Amino acid sequence: MPPAETATSETFVPLAVDLDGTLIRSDMIWESVARLLRKKPLALLALPFWWARGRAHLKQQLGRRVQVDAASLPYNEPFLAWLKEQKSAGRRLILATASDMAMARPVAAHLGIFEEVMASDGEINLRAQAKMDALTKRFGERGFDYAGNSSVDLAVWSGSRAAIVVNGSEALAQRAAQRTKLGRIFPTHDSTLAALVRCFRPHQWLKNLIVFVPVLTAHKLGDAAALGHAALAFAAFCLCACAVYVLNDLLDLDADRHHATKRHRPFASGALPIPFGLIAAPLLLLAAVTLGALLSAEFVVVVLLYFALAGAYSLRLKQVALLDVFVLAGLYTLRLVAGHVATGIEYSPWLLVFSMFVFLSLALLKRFLELHSLRQQNRHEAKGRGYTAGDLELVTTLGLVSGYLAVLVLALYVNSPQVQKLYAQPVRLLLVCPLLLFWVSRVWFLAHRGQMQDDPVAFAVRDWVGYAVGALTLVVMWLATGR
Known about the structure:
It is built from 21 helices and six strands. By secondary structure, the chain is of the alpha/beta class. It has three domains: about 10-185, 3-Layer(aba) Sandwich (Rossmann fold); about 190-340, UbiA prenyltransferase (Tetracycline Repressor, domain 2); about 350-483. Strand 5, helix 8 (about 170-175) and strand 6 (about 180-185) form a beta-alpha-beta unit. Helix 1 (about 30-40) crosses helix 3 (about 55-65), helix 11 runs parallel beside helix 15 (about 295-315) and helix 19 (about 430-450) runs antiparallel to helix 21. It is elongated and about 90 Å long. The N and C termini lie far apart (about 70 Å). The model is unreliable at about 1-10 (pLDDT under 50).
């Protein structure tokens, strides 16, 4: 990488800086579309008509309807730090972007390093040759340096004194060098594959193993057909869950960027482009429905119901205190229902009630971890949630009570007539109660001590004690069969 420029006379050549993909690791058009999806989804129907009148008009219409929080945008920090050094050295910085002026001005005002803003105005799309012409008219032929990130910027570099390549490939830098002097290079360090893995959250797919629970509790592990149908249901729910995660991340951009850890999520951090998510979400859902259709139409209904409920949760329900955790518990229970539908195994009222209390406890645990982190940061209100730090103790109580009620339901099940059909020694099942009591108490104890991250599932994947409790539970169930 070439050394940093020093405060010579060349340093004071004006530097024009692109916004989308250069100053920020995102694009203001798609940032606006994502917010329109959340706030005014029906307005998306007008996008093709705005686009038909030109990109400049499209950007203007988006800028009028949604406002992007400039403080939360994923800035290219190394590049931004260098810009601040140039500003301190006396260099004149100009924000020159194809984004609409309504989108660009808040960014310039937030950063406070730009003396001038040049942007699209609804008539002229300040991009490529149009941007080069505007800069040349303003500063003269090769009277400015320009920082950009894509092949579109080659037209601008052709008329600039020097090219600063940001987030571009080596091939792009070589093409820029053929048109003008090559200045600083700020390479990208994002791994697309790693970003995709984080986006699809494979560790969360463990939740979908719930579809196998009816096979286990009905003692159908030796039934190849039941296992095959459950495996197909598992795959369909994994695809559907991926679609939900993508949609959730698109709708939660602002909230995630204000969160201590969620700000590193692929879309929030700019590691993945927003258009990818807008395309991937419906395709993943379509794949889930196609796979589910191999089982039954009823199973497809369950998948679509899960996606609709999860979408409603992301759009609005997650902001309503208490209702959000009941919806989360319902999403867990729908996986259980899907297992019954896929395999044709008869529903068990005991299992449904037991799962309701267990899943409610886990949902409350997730909220507890967020509120615990909020209190540690001396913040009062969780952005995008209906809770405050003062709700921590109440959430703790509700979570523990829900977990213990699940144990009570299990104990009552052991003493019910239904258990006689499956177990020769049902009394032995009571040994599961202290195991479950220990597990519920332990996860809440560790959460209270701050020894659990903000994701209980990620914790469970690494928790050998949880695996031991699960193994002992299976042993007890085997002993209860009378073998």
